[in-house]
Design brief:
The complex is a heterodimer of chains A (111) and B (141).
Chain A (H helix, E strand, L loop, with lengths): L2 H7 L3 E4 L10 E4 L3 H7 L4 E5 L4 H9 L4 E4 L7 H10 L3 E3 L4 H12 L2
Parallel strand pairs in A: 2-3, 3-4, 4-5
Antiparallel strand pairs in A: 1-5
Chain B lengths: L4 E7 L9 H12 L4 H20 L4 E7 L3 E8 L7 H5 L8 H4 L8 H8 L2 E7 L3 E9 L2
Antiparallel strand pairs in B: 1-2, 2-3, 3-5, 4-5
Helix pairs in contact in B: 1-2, 2-5
Classes of the chains: A alpha/beta (111), B alpha+beta (141).
The complex binds adenosine-5'-triphosphate (ATP) and magnesium ion.
């Protein structure tokens, strides 16, 4: 599934759309501890987390995540939204629990 | 030698909105140089963990990077409080990060283990009251 498909799908609200929509999403990944995610998240993951600060954006960009999905109704703060734009990272948000959001992506990938 | 490229970054103290900028800049420079994306990713992860540690645990510092055809060397130097027990600090899960830092998602105690995991050579020297220097090398192949 391409990032583009997830943007079009409408299941998650798009907060920022990067220019990388041709990118493939390989798997969902869940973790809120930044250095655990940094060390273990595979490249091209759809990273589902509740942490919406600038450091989340930095980790996503440096560890080559395909996109960020903020779950459980969490939001990006203002500096983080600016960073998402500046770093060209696609960010979604949803009221869904982390598991449900990740499972939805899993189902779409394996449909 | 002419086929070595030197880069230097100042890491400002206490600024979480800017922490990670040096790593981001290095990452885009390496990409532009055409370095293999998997190598770039290793460097970016190792460097970010070191950079963020300088901001959280020390008072910022300086990072010197040398890119040669064989490897990428990163030297991260701070004048922070130093680390009394390096062996303990290197253990996965060990962290002295305060609550306000943990609330941002840090403090898993995985930064130093990540730096070791993603670099091919890793050295840490530290003197209490003087500062900490971390040297990491990532091989090009
Ligand atoms: N540059 C430094 N100066 C002083 N102490 C440091 C420095 N880097 C690491 N430490 C000490 O080593 C501990 C472990 O560092 P490590 O990066 O592994 O975890 P952390 O920074 O606490 O949490 P995480 O990196 O998982 O968010 C820190 O909590 C701190 O006590
Ligand atoms: Mg750390």
């Amino acid at each position: 599934m391409k990032l583009y498909d997830l943007v079009q799908d409408g299941c998650f609200k798009v907060l920022n759309e990067g220019s990388t929509s041709e990118r493939e999403i390989l798997a969902p990944y869940c973790c809120d501890l930044l250095s655990v995610a940094m060390g273990r998240m595979p490249a091209d993951s759809a990273w589902v987390t509740v942490m919406g600060n600038v450091n989340t954006l930095a980790v996503a960009s440096l560890a080559d995540a395909a996109c960020i999905i903020l779950a459980e109704g969490s939001h990006l703060d203002e500096p983080a939204l600016n960073k998402a734009k500046q770093q060209d990272i696609t960010v979604f948000e949803t009221e869904m629990p982390i598991f449900d959001a990740a499972f939805l992506i899993y189902q779409k990938l394996h449909a | 030698m002419s086929n070595m490229i030197h880069m230097s970054y100042e890491v400002p103290p206490g600024d979480f909105t800017r922490a990670g900028e040096a790593s981001s800049n290095l990452k885009s420079s390496l990409k532009k140089m055409g370095v293999n994306p998997e190598i770039v990713r290793k460097v970016a992860i190792a460097m970010y963990e070191g950079e963020i540690n300088m901001v959280i645990h020390a008072t910022g510092g300086k990072i010197d990077v040398v890119v040669s055809p064989e490897e990428i060397e990163m030297v991260l130097k701070d004048q922070g409080p130093g680390i009394a027990n390096i062996e303990l600090a290197m253990q996965a899960g060990y962290s002295t990060a305060p609550d306000n830092i943990r609330n941002l998602g840090f403090g898993a105690g995985m930064g130093l283990p990540n730096m070791k995991k993603y670099s091919d050579e890793f050295k840490i020297e530290s003197t209490v009251g003087v500062g900490t220097t971390v040297t990491m090398k990532v091989k090009m192949e």
